[in-house]
Amino acid sequence: MDLGIKGRKAIVCAASKGLGRACAMSLAREGVDLVITARTVETLEATAAEIRAATGAKVIAVAGDITTEAGRAAALAACPEPDILVNNAGGPPRGDFRDWNRDDWIKALDGNMLTPIFLIKSVVDGMIARKFGRIVNITSGSVKSPIAELGMSNGARAGLTGFVAGLARQVARHNVTINGLLPGPFLTDRLRGGFAEAAKRTNRTVEEVMAERSAHTPAGRVGDPAEFGEACAFLCAASSGYIVGQNLLLDGGAFNSSMG
Prior knowledge:
By secondary structure, the chain is α/β, with parallel strands linked by helices. The protein is 47% helix and 14% strand. The protein contains eight helices and seven strands. Helix 2 links the parallel strand 2 and strand 3. It is globular, with a radius of gyration of 18 Å.
């Protein structure tokens, strides 16, 4: 299926590995020119080289922290008129809300709510003028089903979701869409690290912990990041202009609801 976005330009945030990398790879396979960002230069450059080799796409790597003004400015300087924006940033740490102070909360809001909003603000008017824009916010399944120990993530990402719900409906008439992709458990480095911690804590193998987690998912497994990337590319398709302000949950059926 041709998604009709060959030659479009995209900024994909936090794309050196994990779900961001998967989104960048899927867009590159559709012929999209990429600017990818991440904090670690070596990892980012390696990912850029891998995407170029696999797809032949043009990929510019811009190292920096996207949650800072300088990081955002660098990405936008490399791609001032993107057709596609994939917002993504690592989530806040787990813990008990009683232990979090104001600085902890501000950092969470900066990373997972305000950074996407500021990037949207920077690009949306240009998209409106060009009559094409696709913005995808990678949030979390916790937006629909909160995870107790991820309170800062629950709050910040839900705030972004609420903001986007209003804005998406203001810009849709200009063929600019804003939607959310909500991951459940995907086999990323972060999830592997969580499995390793749980295995050590419970004196089990990583494979046993993964099997237990998989058993609690109707699909019977954790997700492949490539699946997530393909969902992102679909939301960015030229033919996806009627998908507006939605939050697509990819969790193998773990969230149990009649209405999704």
